[in-house]
Amino acid sequence: MISRRDILRQTALGFGSIALTSLLEEQVLAEKPRELKNPHFVPRAKRVIFLFMKGGPSQVDTFEYKPQLQRDHGKELPFAKPKVTFAPTGNLLASPWRFTQHGQCGHYVSELFPQVAKHVDDICFLHGLHGTNPAHGAASLKLHTGADNFVRPSMGAWINYGLGTENANLPAFVTICPTLGHGGVNNWGGAFLPAKFAGTPISNASVPAKNARMHHITNPQWTLAEQRMQLDFLRQLNRDQIGSPVSSDLESRIHSFELAFRMQTSMPEIQEIGDESEATHKLYGLDNPVTEDFGRQCLLARRFCERGVRFVQVTHSDSKVQWDQHGNLRRGHAEKASEVDQPIAGLLEDLKTRGLLNDTLVVWSGEFGRTPTVQGSDNDGRDHNPWGFTMWMAGGGVKGGTRHGATDEYGFYAERGKVHIHDFHATLLYLLGIDHEKLTYRHGGRDFRLTDVFGNVVHDILS
């Protein structure tokens, strides 16, 4: 008879193998994408275009009119400022731009955005948005990933992971001219999700949009048939190395090779916008050197979306002024708004004309807003303000011609209808048919999600 002690002595090394097999099996299961062929909810949107205004546009100078701020210009703020701020500010600073009502809804819009103002009846303004961090990098990461101090998957990567692409010949997530600063690649990366779910960048913010393209997309030395044979051989060699369990990194590498091969037949056609009519070029502002750059990005976003790309990120940023006016507010905001106003209006009109706005959600936002109190030696600047700012959405299942929430009478703190960044992410996923609490990925011994352990869907803005 064999005693329990003899069994343990003779089989002890096997316990480690059993434990390792169990852990690796858990990893393999976690790495399998959960296809949402039957979404949790009836989706109101199929795709997203995210217009990111890097630097932080001022809500009180663009889309949230504050009559009391205009009246009390130069006076002290009558309540306490945040305990932690990015930099000191002084008294109240009235907006130098005139606000007028537009559309049937009568929403007030600054004269900075005369073209976007024509589309207010299609737009839902969220005036009670708020975050947690007054620094560019952390606030950008919060907006894009839901976390300001950890590396987490971006919202585009989560959507890619959950829904995949409608076009196997294109990436599901594309980012056009993204910034390399303030979070950089983490703003469109996949973090611990399998690498194939990360965004595919089209150049970066330091490159003019007319030169932004996917390079090396054609092979001048090999025919498609020869490349196919080469890839088949390479795939077989790689699969011989995968073994069991499956290696996520190697699987993603194989996926990238295959996608790059298929993109040869689709990407060149998207990047060449010469087939668009002269009227379309003018609609996006490509006939104007001021609007041409961002207009080209917006036109590319429409072309990607109509071909089945699930999430398109368009970044307005450069190495000069951006939207970050701690001084020279009048010049800086006027310059930045003039670059994007016509292209954004053109995008909304084009999507609507083509019937794409109904199931395409357009989101406009910076990483935060700006203070109603003055900053700068020229008394012509505003500081970072994550405590209350404006985001707007259009199409894709939101109520057009509406506003949700508000900041206080001066525009400093979100006060009514408050929407945290986590709430925005929960709502974004809901519009795509996803329950934010069920879209999870197991990593490091816990289930992660875009909204972490927070987030509430803002049902009031849904159509």
Would you write up a description of this structure?
With 463 residues, the protein is of the alpha/beta class. The protein folds into 2 domains: 38-213 and 278-461, Alkaline Phosphatase, subunit A (3-Layer(aba) Sandwich); 219-263. It is 32% helix and 16% strand. It contains 11 helices and 17 strands. Strands 1, 4, 5, 6, 7, 8, 11, 12 and 15 form a 9-stranded mixed beta sheet that branches. Helix 9 (292-305) packs parallel to helix 10. The chain starts with a helix and ends in a 15-residue tail after the last strand. 47% of the residues are buried. Mean pLDDT is 89; it is low at 15-36.
- Report the uncertain regions: 15-36
How would you spell out the order of helices and strands?
Answer: HEHEEEHHEEHHHHHEHEEEEEEEEHEE
Topology-level CATH name of the largest domain: Alkaline Phosphatase, subunit A
End-to-end CA span: 74 Å
* Main structural class: alpha/beta
Which percent range describes the beta-strand content? Answer: 15-25%
How many domains make up the 3D coordinates? 2
Query: What is the number of helices?
Result: 11
CATH architecture designation of the largest domain: 3-Layer(aba) Sandwich
The average pLDDT score comes to: 89
What is the number of beta strands?
Answer: 17
Which shape, going by the Cα principal axes? globular
Task: Assign the CATH class of the largest domain.
Answer: Alpha Beta
Rounded to the nearest angstrom, the radius of gyration is: 24 Å
CATH homologous superfamily placement of the largest domain: Alkaline Phosphatase, subunit A
